[in-house]
Amino acid sequence: MTRKLSRRLQELQKKVEDRPYDPLEALNLLKETATAKFPESAEAHIRLGIDPKYTDQQLRTTVALPKGTGQTVRVAVIARGEKVTEASNAGADLVGSEELIDEIQKGMMDFDLLIATPDVMPQVAKLGRLLGPRGLMPSPKGGTVTFDLAQAIQEFKAGKLEFRADRTGIVHVLFGKASFSAEDLLVNLKALQETIDRNRPSGAKGRYWRTVYVSSTMGPSIQVDINALRDMKVGEAA
């Protein structure tokens, strides 16, 4: 059954032409079509030429958004001994050892990101069925399994994000707020594009980038000219 579009979205879609837009033009249009009654996020939906069912075609990494995410990230840390104090001093919102693992097992999920030190991962592994579906399971690739807690906490609170391609090869990622300037959104989108290029899976064959769309949380999808985005120099996006 096709979902009926709201009148608001139907009107907004009339503003979007069926063509790839220059990146800055697309982001100005994203801002113009962010008319919901709450602060909307800016989202990127990127289709890549990969098949993640093969291990050498999977993409999972992190990006440091230079202009931040515009969101407050609640960080939980599972560690032992002096690392508990280190995490607390570094600004973690929740810190603990076995007792925090027990609380999470009972359903406590008052955090947006979970970091763990390598020595507690055997215990954290039993949370896989709870955390995995929510994308919260710590992983070395995602930068969330580390002994350098202070740096990790600082980076994720400042705008570092973990993302991955879903099983159809599409990356869905927030890259700021619709209230950001179009120029700041472009700096973040460029950082995301460079990260995806830098982490191209070894098994990716043929055309890597298929389509890039951006939208606000409740707005219409706007296609971005991939080549224009990739050809842009960092200075041009600043």
Automatic annotation (TrEMBL):
A biological process from GO: regulation of translation
GO-annotated molecular function: rRNA binding; structural constituent of ribosome; tRNA binding
Listed Pfam families: Ribosomal_L1
Alphabetically ordered keywords of this record: Repressor, Ribonucleoprotein, Ribosomal protein, RNA-binding, rRNA-binding, Translation regulation, tRNA-binding
Family annotation (InterPro entries): Ribosom_uL1_bac-type, Ribosomal_uL1, Ribosomal_uL1-like, Ribosomal_uL1/biogenesis, Ribosomal_uL1_3-a/b-sand, Ribosomal_uL1_CS
GO cellular component term of the entry, any: large ribosomal subunit
Superkingdom in the source lineage: Bacteria
Family designation: Belongs to the universal ribosomal protein uL1 family.
NCBIfam families tied to this protein: rplA_bact
Assembly description: Part of the 50S ribosomal subunit.
Function: Binds directly to 23S rRNA. The L1 stalk is quite mobile in the ribosome, and is involved in E site tRNA release. Protein L1 is also a translational repressor protein, it controls the translation of the L11 operon by binding to its mRNA.
Protein name: Large ribosomal subunit protein uL1
Species for this entry: Allocoleopsis franciscana PCC 7113
Lineage: Bacteria, Bacillati, Cyanobacteriota, Cyanophyceae, Coleofasciculales
Gene responsible for this protein: rplA
